[in-house]
Write a structure and sequence with these properties.
single chain; alpha+beta; two-stranded antiparallel sheet; about 15% helix; flat; carbon-sulfur lyase activity; Mss4-like_sf; CENP-V/GFA domain-containing protein
């Protein structure tokens, strides 16, 4: 999986199994995505 931050300054690639996925529905995530929630995960 590949991704990047909203401004494009930080990019990443993850190989292998993804850890748990979470859904955030704070006002910032709703405004940024134009949706009711944003899917997210935490990796080290």
């Amino acid at each position: 999986m590949t991704g990047e931050c909203l401004c494009g300054e930080v990019k990443f690639e993850i190989d292998g199994k993804l850890p748990n996925l979470y859904q955030c529905h704070c006002s910032l995530c709703r405004k940024t995505t134009g949706s009711t929630a944003n899917a997210a995960t935490f990796v080290s």
